[in-house]
Write a structure and sequence with these properties.
The chain is α+β, with helices and mostly antiparallel strands. The chain contains 15 helices and 21 strands. The strands form 5 sheets. The chain has a 6-stranded mixed beta sheet, with helices on both faces. Strands 16-17-18-19-20-21 form a 6-stranded antiparallel barrel. A 4-stranded antiparallel beta sheet has the order 10-13-11-12.
Length: about 550
């Protein structure tokens, strides 16, 4: 199996620049804590050119670089960056896994392994696959090095050596010699199968990351390269240095005892940021939220998924926590729509205290696809339809957007509301006897003008009417639809229900009438409120 390793050598710095892209190109240092005595754990190349160095104090670094920008390392930002590194790997390979954290001189690096077997069918070559992976990681704000080998450990070591070479601007140890080829802009390395040992031989023993005791002993013995280590007898090494040195020997020989890479099953994505100072106003909070959401959507797009529902968590000053749910009508990747929904959630109920940490979580869901009919016009695209529904929901409310449904009630005004779904298939044959809505009752007095099948158009809400009644029978009607004396009449038909509910009970008497102006309509008397309405019109 061919395995690729994507390595970010300086994760604290890369995570800070990913969260704050305006700092790119500035002299930046990441420190362990606030204060002049805090230790620098990462410096940008601009800061390094001005004399700032790792493991020094902030006071010393500011003495040599007065314009130095100092940021405290954020665990939330680094955790999101490590997860983003895995998203970049999943975007080009179905099997991927994050490398365990290390200590010592390589404690600040972050790496991810992914399956690179059979990538030639999609990327033409392993070099094309490595270049695509490097470009995908850089697009997500985490530029790094990519190495491909037949061993997971060798790929990691190759990416680490490539990073050291680039940082030291040296190329002697990574010159292509038949077994190693370079692609892209010096950020990828391909090791041919079976030639891992020849690649490792000239490398320094420090690239294997031995512990301090073993490294000091090997140096005292004159062992400086991997070739020197492999020339020593294993039995003598075990006797003098213990069994831990044999792990270095197996690593130098290219042995890999890891299990196959898994298929990531979790689609839960999290983005978080620790604010430099608590925010108690909505305007700066919305500005930070927009950057957080844009990074989350970039990760979803890399995994070919969309956002259906957001969980916004606000860690407040004093230890309080406020969690909001931001739902969308349909899966979308539209930043503008999701920002409008999130702002509405914050404006409707502002935080009670200053916010110290923001966290966004979502479960990625696949895009909605639609099978088009060859013989009918194309309907709205699922992405455009979802964006429109989300905007309408933000304007009108979640309970006012959807498709009407038939309610289980005798109340003529009752209806249900369900999720909006465009019709998938339309019947090509419509029965001649089927109408949109028909009157299914038999009138008590049916005049000739009301005979036959007529389509009825319900009016919602019904129109108010002034009615003159004689002996309980309407004689004259005045309304916005029908005006004049009642020429023909059928009815009444009584409909009652929900008598046990004071708010939901109803009782109606309905009449089918034709007025002197020629309008055929349905007149309704509301017994509860003692009012008359034009309920429907016959066409």
């Amino acid at each position: 199996m061919r395995t690729a390793c994507l390595l970010v050598p300086n994760l604290p710095l890369a995570a800070e620049l990913r969260a704050h892209p305006e700092l790119i190109g500035q002299p930046l240092a990441v420190v362990t804590a606030a204060g002049p005595r805090a230790e620098l754990i990462a410096v940008s190349s601009e800061a390094a050119r001005r004399g700032a160095r790792r493991s020094t104090s902030v006071a010393h670094a500011r003495a040599v670089c007065a314009e130095l920008i100092v940021r405290v390392a954020s665990p939330a930002i680094e955790a999101a960056a490590r997860a983003t590194l895995l998203d970049a790997a999943i975007s080009v390979s179905p099997r991927a896994d994050s490398a365990p954290r290390t200590s010592g001189p390589y404690a600040s690096e972050a790496a991810v392994y992914l399956d690179a077997s059979g990538v030639g069918a999609l990327f033409r070559s392993e070099a094309g696959f490595a270049a695509a992976l490097s470009a995908r990681a850089e697009r997500l704000g985490l530029p790094g090095q990519v190495a491909i080998s037949s061993s997971r450990n060798i790929a990691h070591i190759a990416a680490r050596q490539l990073s050291n070479t680039l940082s030291n601007t040296l190329s002697s140890s990574m010159e292509p010699s038949g077994s190693v080829s370079h692609a892209g802009s010096g950020r990828t390395c391909i090791i041919k199968a079976g030639e891992e040992a020849s690649f490792l031989a000239p490398l320094s023993i420090d690239i294997l990351d031995p512990d301090d005791a073993i490294a000091e002993t090997l140096t005292r013995f004159g062992v400086h390269t991997v070739r020197d280590l492999l020339q020593l007898p294993r039995r003598a090494l075990r006797t003098r240095l213990g069994p831990r040195v044999l792990q270095l020997v197996e690593l130098a020989q290219g042995h890999d005892h890891h299990t196959p890479l898994p298929v990531p099953s979790s689609t839960r994505l999290t983005e978080a940021i620790d604010l430099e100072c608590p925010l108690d106003r909505l305007e700066p909070l919305v500005f930070v939220l927009q950057g957080l959401l844009s990074r989350l959507l970039a990760r979803l797009e890399a995994r070919h998924m969309a956002c259906d529902e957001l969980t916004l968590t606000l860690d407040q000053e004093g230890g309080g926590r406020d969690t909001r749910r931001v739902g969308a009508a349909a899966p979308t990747l539209d930043l503008r729509v999701l920002m409008r929904l999130a702002c509405h959630a914050l404006e409707s109920q502002p935080p009670r205290a200053a916010v110290e940490t923001l966290t966004l979580e979502t479960d990625g869901c696949p895009y909605e696809n639609d099978q088009l009919d060859l013989f009918r016009p194309a309907g709205p695209a699922p992405a455009v339809l979802g964006r429109t529904l989300a905007e309408l929901e933000a304007l009108c409310g979640r309970d006012r957007i959807g498709s009407p449904q038939v309610a289980d009630s005798h109340d003529p005004d009752a209806f249900g509301m369900g999720p909006f779904q465009p019709p998938r298939h339309l019947s090509s044959k419509i029965s001649a006897n089927t109408t949109a809505s028909t009157s299914a009752h038999t009138p008590a007095r049916s005049p000739s003008s009301l005979s036959g099948n007529l389509a009825i158009r319900a009016l919602r809400p019904p129109l108010s009417a002034n009615v003159r009644v004689s002996r309980g029978i309407p004689e004259f009607v005045r309304s916005a639809i029908a005006n004049g004396h009642v020429v023909h009449l059928a009815g009444p038909w009584r409909t009652t229900g929900s008598w046990w509910s004071r708010e939901g009970r109803f009782a109606y008497d309905s009449f089918d009438i034709q007025t002197s102006d020629g309008t055929v309509s349905r007149l309704r008397l509301d017994y509860i409120h003692k009012t008359w309405h034009i309920d429907a019109v016959y066409d």
